[in-house]
Structure to design on (287 residues):
C-alpha cells in the first residue's frame, strides 16, 4: 500500500480534484433538447459545486460547435479546462432515452465517441494530474486504458477514486482495491453482502454500492453504513445522478473523514439533478 502520510498531514479542505475521461453532449430527441454531460465532466462540475478548492477536467473535444458549448459550460462552473484538448473532428455525443419512471437508458449504438476515440494522455497531462490531491477515473469502454492511472506512479501521493460503472463482478473489483481509496460500484444488497467477505476486509478501501432508489451502502473493513435515497416529488431523469453522488461523497469524505455524512451529502446532491432533464442543469431546447 502506498504511503499517504503527506496527504494525511495536509488540510484536506483545500483539496484539488481532477477527473480524467469523457465529456459529451447528451441528446434527448424525445423532447428536442441537449445537455452538456459526460461522466468525468459531471464529476468535475459537481466537485466544484460541493466545495473542492480546484476541480479540473482532463479530456478531449472536437473543433465543432459542440466543443465550444462544453468549454463555455466549464468556464461557467469554474472548472479548470486547461487540459481539455481540442482535436480536429466531432465532439463526443450520446443519445439518451428516458422511460416513464425517469430512468435513463443508453442503448447499443447510442454513444458516439468522436475525437475521444484514440485519444491518449501525454506527459504534460500526467504532470498536471499529479498536481492534484484527488484523482477520479471511470472504467468503461472506450476508456479502459485510462484506468491504468489507478496504479500509475505519479511521483507524489494522490488519493484515487474509481468508478467501476456496471461491473458487478466481485473478483474484478478486488483486483483494484490495493491502489484505490474509494471504489464506486452499482449493485444491490446481495452485491454489498459479497463485498463484506474477509478478502475484501484486508484493505482500507471504502467500497460504495449505489443501489438506485434503494439507497446506497458504504463498506470498509467489515463495517457497513446505509443511506436511503432522498425522495423527490417526481423523478424526471436519472442521467448523471451517480456521478453527482460520487462527487459529493468524495468531497465530503476527504473533508471530514465521516463515511455516514458523506453518504448523506451524496444522496442530497444527487436528489438535486433528477428533477429535470440533463445531468447538471436543465437541458436546453434545440432550435
Amino acid at each position: 500500500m502506498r504511503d499517504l502520510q503527506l496527504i494525511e498531514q495536509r488540510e484536506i479542505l483545500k483539496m484539488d480534484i481532477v477527473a480524467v475521461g469523457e465529456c459529451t453532449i447528451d441528446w434527448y430527441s424525445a423532447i428536442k433538447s441537449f445537455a452538456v454531460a459526460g461522466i468525468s465532466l459531471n464529476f468535475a462540475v459537481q466537485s466544484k459545486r460541493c466545495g473542492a478548492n480546484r476541480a479540473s477536467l482532463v479530456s478531449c473535444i472536437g473543433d465543432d460547435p459542440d466543443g465550444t458549448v462544453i468549454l463555455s459550460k466549464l468556464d461557467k462552473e469554474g472548472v479548470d479546462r486547461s487540459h481539455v484538448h481540442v482535436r480536429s473532428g466531432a465532439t463526443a455525443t450520446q443519445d439518451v432515452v428516458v422511460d416513464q419512471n425517469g430512468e435513463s437508458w443508453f442503448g447499443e449504438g447510442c454513444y458516439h465517441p468522436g475525437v475521444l476515440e484514440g485519444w491518449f494522455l501525454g506527459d504534460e497531462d500526467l504532470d498536471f494530474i499529479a498536481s492534484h490531491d484527488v484523482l477520479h477515473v471511470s472504467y468503461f469502454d472506450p476508456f479502459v486504458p485510462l484506468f491504468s492511472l489507478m496504479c500509475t506512479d505519479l511521483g507524489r501521493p494522490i488519493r484515487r477514486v474509481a468508478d467501476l460503472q456496471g461491473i458487478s463482478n466481485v473478483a474484478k473489483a478486488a483486483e483494484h482495491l490495493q491502489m484505490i481509496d474509494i471504489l464506486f460500484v452499482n449493485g444491490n444488497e446481495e452485491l454489498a453482502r459479497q463485498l463484506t467477505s474477509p478478502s475484501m476486509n484486508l484493505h482500507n478501501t471504502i467500497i460504495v454500492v449505489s443501489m438506485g432508489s434503494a439507497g446506497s451502502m458504504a463498506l470498509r473493513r467489515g463495517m457497513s453504513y446505509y443511506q436511503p435515497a432522498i425522495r423527490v416529488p417526481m423523478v424526471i431523469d436519472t442521467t448523471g445522478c451517480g456521478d453527482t453522488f460520487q462527487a459529493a461523497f468524495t468531497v465530503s469524505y476527504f473533508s471530514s473523514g465521516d463515511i455516514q455524512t458523506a453518504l448523506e451529502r451524496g444522496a442530497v446532491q444527487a436528489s438535486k439533478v433528477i428533477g429535470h432533464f440533463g445531468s447538471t442543469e436543465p437541458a436546453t431546447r434545440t432550435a
Q: What stands out?
A: The longest helix spans residues 241-256.
